[in-house]
Amino acid sequence: MNQQEILELFQSSGALLNGHFKLTSGRHSDVYYEKFTLLKKPSICTQICEQMAFNFKDTQAVTVVGPTTGGIIIAYDVARYLGIEAIYAEPGENERIFKRGFSLEKGQKVVIVDDVLTTGKSVWEVIKLVESYEADIVGIGLMLDRSNGAVKFDYPFFALATVAANNWEPKDCPLCAKGMELTQRGSRKF
Ligand SMILES: [Zn+2]
């Protein structure tokens, strides 16, 4: 699948919206992404996970790690396609931790997955956790890059699709200037 086909899956799920949105921050945006609108639809989500798994097929990874909560679903499904195991990085007091007896061996080949890249915070937290076990990060995969290319990692990294999302203070918003109706996030689909 190419990027356009991936984006069409996002759009068909209703997770990726174009319009004029008021974000929780109060800023206005021309794109809104509601991640659980995709994740609640396994028949669509799994097609994206399959493509992600395909991109990892030559890594020899034995474990997929994803951050809670959305990353659980993605890690599980990517691992299913690869025939390997999935574990989850959960919030601790100040950092991500493994619970439930999850652990990694030194040198163990690991891929990290998450759904959307915005600031990269959750992926950085997982990287730090995996590095603390001296495991070998052989790839990082994201479904969607919304960082406008601003976030990079020190490991092989891909995003299946990139979306340029603009946001502005209301006073600077060109959509307001055009008189376009402002919708609360997620309430309108094009
Ligand atoms: Zn506006």
Task: Describe the secondary structure blueprint for this structure.
Layout: H1 3-13, E1 16-22, E2 28-33, H2 35-39, H3 42-55, E3 63-67, H4 70-82, E4 85-91, E5 96-97, E6 109-117, H5 121-132, E7 136-145, E8 157-162, E9 167-168, H6 174-177, E10 183-184
Helix pairs in contact: 1-3, 3-4
The protein binds zinc ion.
Protein described:
By secondary structure, the chain is α/β, with parallel strands linked by helices. The protein has a single domain, classed as Rossmann fold (3-Layer(aba) Sandwich). Helices cover 31% and strands 29% of the residues. It has 6 helices and 10 strands; from the N terminus they run αββααβαβββαβββαβ. It has helices spanning 3-13, 35-39, 42-55, 70-82, 121-132, 174-177, and strands at residues 16-22, 28-33, 63-67, 85-91, 96-97, 109-117, 136-145, 157-162, 167-168, 183-184. It has a 6-stranded mixed β-sheet, with helices on both faces. β3 (63-67), α4 (70-82) and β4 (85-91) form a beta-alpha-beta unit. α1 (3-13) packs antiparallel against α3 (42-55) and α3 crosses α4 (70-82). The longest helix is centred in the first third of the chain and has 14 residues, at 42-55. The protein is globular and about 55 Å long. Mean pLDDT is 92; it is low at 186-190. The structure holds zinc ion. Zinc ion is lined by residues 20, 28, 170, 173, 175-176, 182.
